[in-house]
Amino acid sequence: MAAFSVTQEVAESVRDAALSVDGVAGVSGGRMGQAFLRVSGAMIEGIQLIDASVPHLALHLTYDLSSRRQIPSIVADVRTAVASLPAFTDTDATPRIDVVFDDAS
């Protein structure tokens, strides 16, 4: 199987899909500032490519306290939103998506 290709467009669509979920206030650079994805021409905050052969991503997010949603429900919705993107539905690979809440606001 070929490695998963992450372009700036794919990374931004992943970020935007996560941000569209109720309960997500924003993206985070991670507790140590390590959650950035370097793509040609850009650095996308809040995404780490763990393994391109799977594909396996970690999304670092900020929890929206005002949503009052349970975190497991938000995580499920983020995974569904990201997995439904054409970058994943157009391949045979089922993405592994780790959702990390680094902060809350």
Strand content bin? 25-35%
Helices, by number, come to 3
Largest sheet: 4 strands, mixed
**Average pLDDT across residues?**
90
Structural class per helix/strand content?
Answer: alpha+beta
Q: What's the overall geometry?
A: globular
Distance between the termini: 40 Å
Helix content: 25-40%
Low-confidence stretches: none
Radius of gyration: 13 Å
Query: What's the SSE pattern?
Result: HEEEEEHHE
Question: Could you tell me the number of beta strands?
Answer: 6
In brief:
The protein has 105 residues and is α+β, with helices and mostly antiparallel strands. 28% of the residues lie in helices and 32% in strands.
Describe this structure in words.
By secondary structure, the chain is α+β, with helices and mostly antiparallel strands. Helix content is 28%, strand content 32%. It is built from 3 helices and 6 strands, in the order H-E-E-E-E-E-H-H-E. The protein has helices spanning 8-19, 71-83, 86-89; strands spanning 24-27, 36-39, 42-45, 47-51, 56-63, 96-104. Strands 1, 4, 5 and 6 form a 4-stranded mixed sheet that branches. A two-stranded antiparallel sheet has the order 2-3. A hairpin with a 4-residue loop joins strand 4 (47-51) and strand 5 (56-63).
